Amino acid sequence: MTMTDQPHPAGFARPTTGGVFTDDAKARFALCYPETAHILNHGLLQHPLLELESLAQLGEALPEKSLEYNRGDLPIGIRPEDVPKTGLSIGETIRGIDSANSWCVLKNIEQVPAYRDLLMSLLAELRDVTDKTTGAMLRPEGFIFVSSPGSMTPYHFDPEHNILLQLRGWKTMTVFPAGDPRFAAPEAHEAYHSGGGPRNLPWDDGFAPHGTDYRLDPGQAIFVPVMAPHYVRNGDKPSISLSITWRSEWSYAETDAHAMNSVLRKYGFRPSPPRRYPVNNLVKSYGYRALRKLGLD
After folding, report:
1. Residue 168, φ and ψ in degrees, nearest 5
2. DSSP notation for 188-230
3. For the segment 252-285, what is each residue's pLDDT rounded down to a tens digit?
4. Which CATH architecture has domain 23-248?
5. How far is the C-alpha of 247 from the C-alpha of 259, rounded, in Å?
6. Can you give the residue ranges of every domain in the chain?
7. Any residues with CB less than 8 A from the CB of 22 and at least 6 apart, and which?
8. Tens of pLDDT along 85-113?
9. What pairing do the DSSP bridges indicate for beta strands 212-216 and 102-107?
């Protein structure tokens, strides 16, 4: 399997013939992007690159840093260092996913040209919307999740704009409001964006009534806003999902504003959190970028 030395290509392919996202899905995406989680319909089913054996070969071809795999029977909240391994290889994990009690993710699949082309073609279908709202799609990346029945992706947040396409099996994603300090403390954001904290978040059972459950069956996808806390519970069948993600200048400004708040907090200030879209957070963002250039961050 050929790898590319351009892990974040700039060029977007034309949308696949006929498109993967339906017209209704694109209209809904235009209505909800970038701040509202929502379900989309897609036609990316039975693609040869996304069959189990193809994914096992992909996993065996990717560098170790692009692989994450562990036991699937996890609690909603767990620290990354406490997640148990299975002792299986990535190929064994994927080929035996029906009974392996495992969860795995293949990261940055765009390192392989065929998967890069698939990713860029899917994102190209959505650019008319994203370019008009958050600006150019930056740092496009793809991730493939393969999980055993009953597996759990623990409570966490992600810095990317993200669409998760369900391809096989079913799962339920529970999403919490982005930017609400009840569900992800400002200090958790600041630690993550300043390079010292994990994506996984502390869980409290009192959060449960405030989450929204989205069931995903094959042919359905969900858009997840930047830094919206969520967890995912797999159904009673093995699951394959494809996550297509991108950054924007807005998301990078939010990242830098959190990092700036981390600096301010070290000096005894109690900074207000960055505001959500359409506020651009540019003052703190530019301030942090200036500090970073001076090596004072």
Report:
1. -150, 145
2. HHHHHHTTSS-SB----GGGGGG-EEEEE-TTEEEEE-TT--E
3. 999 999 999 999 999 999 999 999 999 999 999 9
4. Sandwich (2.60)
5. 17
6. 23-248, 252-293
7. 40, 41, 42, 43
8. 999 999 999 999 999 999 999 999 999 99
9. unpaired
